[in-house]
Amino acid sequence: MNERILPSPVQQIIFVSRETSNCPLIAEMIRLGHTLKNLGIQDSDIGIMSLDYGKRLLINGKNVDIKKLTQQDVVEIVDYDLLKNVIMVIGTKDPCLQMPVHWIIQKARHDINVLLQINSKTLAEKFKGHLPTTEKETTVGSFEQAKEALTTLRSGKTIVIRDEALLYAGINIGEIENSLRTTLEGKQ
Questions:
Q1: For the chain, what is the largest distance between any 2 Cα atoms, rounded to a whole number of angstroms?
Q2: pTM as predicted
Q3: Strands 74-81 and 46-53
Q4: What's residue 8's pLDDT?
Q5: Residue 52 — φ and ψ, nearest 5°?
């Protein structure tokens, strides 16, 4: 039987508040973002960082360089309706396109509170074969991409999203920093 693929509905963003989030965990996100430059992440490499915060999710806004992250660059996702593709946000920016994937992973896995995604074809190619890698090619920010990532995360907390990115998952920022140092400084 052929599976029918329906186009995903247009993403709708509802701003609950246009104020900057005051969550104290944002300071840790900023610190981690700034350490990426010291670990050799190139200016051309784009990062997405998210942190589970109770029933909410902190994530960097769209088109934000996480190596220069500020408090105003982080948005707080109050809720996300996957079926209707509706995002409720507190913050001054739109959330990044990968927000649905980060939301799904963090709500599905209770042992993952922090995700760091480094979009770099160079790094993805370098670690392909050394780290667990997603099998199928998927659309950025799609439910299929989240499913592929969740399946691959069974093999380890640092994975390669096929031809696209490295994804680090951890219970806290310290675990992410250790994983970054292990992979990027060659202590694998």
A1: 51
A2: 0.90
A3: unpaired
A4: 53
A5: -70, 135
